[in-house]
């Protein structure tokens, strides 16, 4: 909720309650602007094309001046209720999409005519206004990604005498309701000829021009509502995101999975290797963690007999923000009793290949521009092919091939000797790894440097050491390794899965190793979850577990290079706000960080 103002003086222009000092400052600024305007040379007399009833060229006003003028107009309408600028209801008979589908077909309405006897009511936002004298106005009405022209003439108005007054109210960005007759202009453009137009919600701010649009990236992310109003591509991207999530949900539903919800807060942050956010429960006087993964809860449900479960929801990781990471993101995790890593690779390939086909109309290929310069000459582009089967890279084998070394035996990858060997290997190849330089972190850095860049089209990295995977089951034929795979696309991880560890004795040892890593300074390591171990002691069937970051997948499928492009409200650094004047209420921040 926004912070309420504690001011005691009403601004006569905007209607705000502000401090006396702030009111004086504003009046002084307005007097200065009025004096400046009075000193300006009178414009040359030119024949009038169209008289502006307001007497002001609003296009020449700066945003603050426009806001004050428009606020004054709307406050006046609120007082007079002629008309009410914020009505409760407007009955819409058709969406713009339905209107176009019904009346656009050739021959339905001949050019230059109206469909007499038919009345429709539409609503949407005005984007452009064009006038041809005082008695004819054209508006572009936008809504749901569609546009219909309003052709308003005085002769069509139900009350011709109030036509000029009524239409003088409307501005670009206003939401309006239109009741009228379907028609076509002489040039053949589908329109609606209104008998009445009603202001439903005014836009108090100057809308960026339709010619230049909204290009500033920072503004687009902070004011996503404005981005959606002005940029149709943004709207299409988030429709695609919705289609992707719905496809994954339907795919899992058709395999007999049940969607569930698990807690967002818990006393332990488990199920992944990540640094958690901490919050506080006042009534219990207890610090809690925001979840970093739903994994442990979902496996407890499999113990309880829900053999196929999945969850699509938010997780929170207190880590850096960059082009592919956001502190909160959407994950899909599923757990499937009596399945293993191999089954999950088949499911992953089928799911993602089918998803791409549904987006492209049948093709398994997409083009991705890794530098974000689509449309520019010489832009680098990657062709991604999602056709099954995907390429598989064995972690240790590929590292040995790329680095020309032989790794220690798998069952010694957790030892101090191996740690020293890995440190020397990273130093030799200029691979940086910050402290704590554990075996798992050193291996992860080597993989990131030498294997992940190979995965342009989707591919799997397999054969992870157990030391990197505290929740995965040991490999049935390769000592020291575990049955795990990671899916990569354009060099970035998109999914992670393994044959689940269901041995409570081994799980306790793995948790204890994580505690040792935490004591060494690794704040991403997990603690011991006694409830989860108790669940395993009741018997977890052989199970395959899988997780995918939805946001990153959407990035690659929509040719986006920044994760902020695919999040409606991405994490942003707070803007610097000037300190309030004495006696003035502080400006409350937006809900978006």
The first-to-last residue Cα distance is: 15 Å
Radius of gyration: 31 Å
Number of helices: 15
Strand order of the largest sheet: 8-12-13-20-19-18-17-16
Q: What's the total count of β strands?
A: 20
In round numbers, the mean pLDDT is: 89
Q: Which segments are poorly predicted (pLDDT under 50) over 5 or more consecutive residues?
A: 1-5, 42-54
Structural class label: alpha+beta
Percent in helix: 25-40%
Main β-sheet: number of strands, strand sense, barrel status? Answer: 8 strands, mixed
Characterization of this structure:
The chain has 593 residues and is an alpha+beta fold. The protein is 31% helix and 21% strand. An eight-stranded mixed β-sheet has the order 8-12-13-20-19-18-17-16, with helices on both faces. Strands 3-4-5-7-6 form a five-stranded mixed β-barrel. α6 packs across α7 and α7 crosses α9 (341-360). The protein is elongated, with a radius of gyration of 31 Å.
Summarize the structure.
By secondary structure, the protein is α+β, with helices and mostly antiparallel strands. The protein is 31% helix and 21% strand. Strands 8-12-13-20-19-18-17-16 form an 8-stranded mixed beta sheet, with helices on both faces.
What keyword list fits this structure?
593 residues, alpha+beta, eight-stranded mixed beta sheet, five-stranded mixed β-barrel, disordered N terminus
């Amino acid at each position: 909720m926004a912070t309420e103002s504690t001011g005691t003086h009403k601004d006569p222009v905007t209607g705000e309650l502000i401090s006396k000092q702030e009111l004086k400052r504003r009046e002084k600024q307005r007097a200065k602007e009025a004096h400046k305007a009075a000193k300006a040379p009178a414009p040359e007399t030119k024949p009038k094309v169209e008289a502006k009833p307001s007497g002001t060229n609003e296009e020449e006003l700066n945003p603050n001046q426009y806001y004050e003028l428009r606020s004054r107009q709307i406050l006046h309408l609120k007082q007079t209720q002629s008309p009410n600028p914020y009505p409760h209801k407007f009955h819409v008979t058709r969406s713009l999409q339905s209107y176009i589908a019904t009346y656009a077909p050739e021959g339905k309405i001949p050019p230059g005519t109206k469909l007499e006897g038919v009345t429709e009511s539409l609503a949407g936002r005005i984007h452009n206004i064009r006038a041809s004298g005082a008695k004819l106005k054209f508006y572009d009405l936008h809504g749901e990604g569609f546009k219909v022209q309003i052709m308003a003439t005085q002769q069509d108005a139900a009350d011709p005498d109030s036509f000029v007054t009524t239409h003088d109210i409307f501005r670009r960005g206003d939401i309006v309701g239109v009741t009228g007759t379907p028609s076509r202009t002489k040039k053949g453009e589908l329109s609606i000829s209104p008998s009445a137009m009603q202001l439903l919600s005014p836009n108090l701010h100057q809308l960026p021009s339709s010619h230049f649009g909204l290009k500033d990236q920072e503004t687009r992310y902070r004011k996503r509502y404005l981005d959606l109003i002005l940029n149709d591509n943004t709207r299409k991207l988030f429709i695609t995101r919705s289609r992707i999530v719905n496809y994954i949900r339907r795919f899992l539903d058709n395999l007999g999975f049940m969607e569930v919800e698990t807690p967002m807060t818990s006393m332990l942050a488990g199920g992944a290797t990540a640094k958690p956010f901490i919050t506080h429960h006042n009534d219990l006087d207890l610090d809690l963690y925001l979840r970093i993964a739903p994994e442990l809860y979902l496996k407890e449900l499999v113990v309880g007999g829900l053999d196929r479960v999945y969850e699509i929801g938010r997780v929170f990781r207190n880590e850096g923000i960059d082009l592919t990471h956001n502190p909160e993101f959407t994950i899909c995790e599923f757990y499937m009793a009596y399945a293993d890593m191999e089954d999950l690779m088949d499911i992953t390939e089928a799911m993602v290949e089918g998803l791409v086909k549904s987006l492209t109309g049948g093709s398994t290929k997409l083009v991705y521009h890794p530098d974000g310069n689509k449309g520019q000459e010489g832009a680098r582009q990657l062709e991604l092919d999602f056709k099954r089967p995907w390429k598989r890279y064995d972690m240790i084998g590929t590292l040995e091939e790329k680095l020309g070394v032989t790794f220690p035996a798998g069952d010694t990858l957790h030892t101090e000797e191996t740690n020293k060997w890995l440190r020397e290997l990273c130093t030799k190849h200029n691979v940086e790894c910050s402290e704590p330089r554990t075996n798992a972190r050193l291996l992860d850095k080597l993989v990131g440097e030498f294997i992940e860049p190979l995965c342009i089209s989707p591919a799997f990295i397999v054969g992870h050491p157990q030391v990197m995977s505290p929740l995965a089951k040991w490999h049935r034929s390769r000592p020291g390794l575990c049955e795990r795979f990671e899916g990569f696309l354009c060099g970035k991880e998109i999914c992670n899965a393994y044959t689940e560890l269901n041995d409570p004795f081994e799980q306790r040892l793995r948790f204890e190793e994580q505690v040792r890593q935490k004591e060494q300074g690794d704040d991403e390591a997990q603690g011991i979850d006694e409830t989860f171990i108790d669940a395993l002691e009741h018997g977890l069937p052989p199970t395959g577990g899988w997780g995918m970051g939805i946001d990153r997948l959407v990035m690659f499928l929509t040719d986006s290079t920044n994760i902020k492009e695919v999040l409606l409200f991405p994490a942003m650094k707070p803007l610097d706000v000037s300190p309030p004047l004495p006696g003035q209420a502080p400006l409350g921040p937006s809900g978006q960080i």
